[in-house]
What does this fold into?
Amino acid sequence: MATSTLGMPDDIREYMLSVSVRETPILKSLREETALMENSMMQVSPEQGQLMHMLIKLIKAKRTLEIGVFTGYSTLWTAMALPEDGLIIACDVNSEWTDTAEKYWREACVDNKIDLRLAPAVDTLNTLIEEGLEGTFDFAFIDANKEDYGKYYEQCLQLVKPGGLIALDNVLRHGRVIDPKSDDPGTVAIRELNRRIYNDDRVDISMIPVSDGLTLVLKNSLQQHQVIPGQMSGNTEFTVS
It folds into this structure.
């Protein structure tokens, strides 16, 4: 996660924000409250939030997934882009953080669009798959613990419909992905997943240098049914349609 764009000079970024980011007062208040928290770097930047807001409008999304909520800033950007009958299934495990999120969702009158699931995201996504909801979501945003990104990616690829979009945050890890000495589990997991996605012919991709790196994954409309061997942990296998 990153509250600004990696490598961009401060003066250029301030200019960019001043002429392009249309942050509502509620969004700004949430961002500023979160900035005072110990884990404030977990919040996405306003330019990234607005980018996802636009993408959701462009694809006319109605049903979305969010893996990692924190204080709900990115969720709020998403909810404001959805139609009145839109839905976000938002996954997190920390009720203290999401209590802040829910306060702002109510203030923005978008809480009716958000189904908050307080449980490990892997479990929540598995439940959705077991309920037969594969191929029913338009958009998914992955921004949670990095070591499980590979699992989230495969699960979201099942749940997103052909032509749907998945966005993965922090794919540059503040530049650590290119440093062979950076061998912490999160960086190793992201480095391996970046390469896997690059070689994944089920999707079209674009990695863009906003915030800490954001990979956009477009699920191909025509795919053969295949089983992807479990490369993330144990012998888990994911069936992808």
The mean pLDDT is 91. The longest strand covers residues 160-169. The beta strands are 63-67, 87-92, 114-118, 137-142, 160-169, 203-208, 214-219, 226-228, 238-240. The longest helix spans residues 185-198.
